[in-house]
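[Help] Beginner question about ligand-bound structures

Sorry if this is basic. My supervisor gave me a protein sequence and a SMILES string for LNDFFVEH and asked me to "get the holo structure". I don't really know what that means in practice or what format the answer should be in. Inputs are pasted below exactly as I got them.
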Amino acid sequence: MRVLVTTAVPAERDAVAAAFTAPASASLVLDPLAGGVGPAAAAASTAAALTAAALTGEPYDLVVSAGIGGGFLPDAPVGSLVLADEITVADLGAETADGFAPVTELGFGTVTHRPPNSLVREIAAVTGARQGAVLTVSTVTGSAARAVELRRRHPRALAEAMEGFGVAEAAAAHGVPVLEIRAVSNPVGPRDRAAWRIGEALAALTGAFGKLAPILESWNPHDLTH
Ligand SMILES: O=C(O)c1cccc(C(=O)CC[C@H]2O[C@@H](n3cnc4c(=O)[nH]cnc43)[C@H](O)[C@@H]2O)c1
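Answer (accepted):
No worries, everyone starts somewhere. Holo just means with the ligand present. The predicted complex, written as structure tokens, is below.
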């Protein structure tokens, strides 16, 4: 099983790598990559890594978008883990007289990718992660009004971050399944830098990846029961 883990920044990549100080096993290769902040950088770096691996004859079986994120209160408090059963881009569309319209309503593309159900359930059980939608945004939410509006449009949203949808688009282009896992560093809502708990969130990320090896080793990527 070959797994590519795309994070945004080196601190997140190192938090993932810290869970694998000894090689997990001969049957699990996990490559953490700091691919940049935002959906475009995430898509480009993930696609480049997937293409390079495929060209060397050792393609990845799974891609994971991982890092810190904002949590919607009260369902995803700071320090909690969120595992996406749905990766949805929240601001790809058009403003209309009737409000925001996603690109799918305009007749284009996609706004949601769905990770494999069976794998999500197993990982949530072992890590204690909350399962729900993770939104991808290009602009970090900075007001209570925007947080309320996002939850109105996406009632199942537990977290927001900036890379998941980009990683998922690259994975889909390569026909590779995708996961997104977020450790909550701050609440989604009014901007408050003092409320960030980045160290706590990075430690939670390391803890989660430390529990993943046995599940990933035994998961059959060809059994994509949704
Ligand atoms: O300046 C601010 O108010 C602010 C608030 C939260 C996050 C940021 C970032 O620039 C971090 C972007 C980086 O971290 C992920 N992240 C973490 N928290 C959030 C969030 O609440 N909403 C969206 N993204 C978040 C994100 O995936 C980026 O990699 C600045």
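A couple of things worth pointing out: The domain at 2-218 is CATH 3.40.50.1580 (Rossmann fold). Residues 8, 37, 67-70, 137, 140-142, 160-163, 185-186, 188, 191 surround LNDFFVEH (CB under 6 Å). Feel free to follow up in the thread.
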